[in-house]
Structure formats: C-alpha cells, structure tokens
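Morning. Coffee machine broken again, so started the prediction first thing and wrote up yesterday's gels while waiting. Chain of 91 residues, entered below exactly as on the submission form.
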Amino acid sequence: MDYRVLVGKEEIFEAACKRVLEGMHAADGHEESRIYRNIEASPAEYLIVSRWKDETAFQEFISSDAFKKVTNWGREHILAGRPTHTTYHEG
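Came back before lunch.
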C-alpha cells in the first residue's frame, strides 16, 4: 500500500503504522509486513509491503471494521490523499 502523508505528520503516521502492524500480526493469514519511507525524493511517502497466505485473507483484513476505522482516521487527520495498493501473486 502506498501512502502520502501530510508534511509534518510523518511521526504520527509512523506511530500509527507501528500499532497497525502489531495488530496485523494477529490477523488470520498474515505472514509479514514491512514499512518503507522514501527518504530521498519525498519523505512524506511511505510503502507498506505485506505478505498474506492468500488473497482471501488479505481481502478479509481490508474489509474489517478495524482496518476501516484506521483508514478513516488517517484520511481525516494525516493523509494527503487516498492510499493505493497493488496486489502481486507468486507463481
């Protein structure tokens, strides 16, 4: 998932991401997640890369009330636009 954060809100976003990533570890089908920051071109751009057991597990997570709650909060307070995501499949 690609995120653009409002300038000056980077620390708040990173703290929120840490909490979300901790919660994701308990999600069924979640295997691993990492967050990356674009430090050269745009320090307010982030990428979260996650590995899931399958597409169904990922779809269930992004459809969850918890995910909707945190994305609504982010949209209202810290994001500079709508996040985007790309799904890759092994094989």
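The radius of gyration is 13 Å. Going to sketch it on the whiteboard this afternoon.
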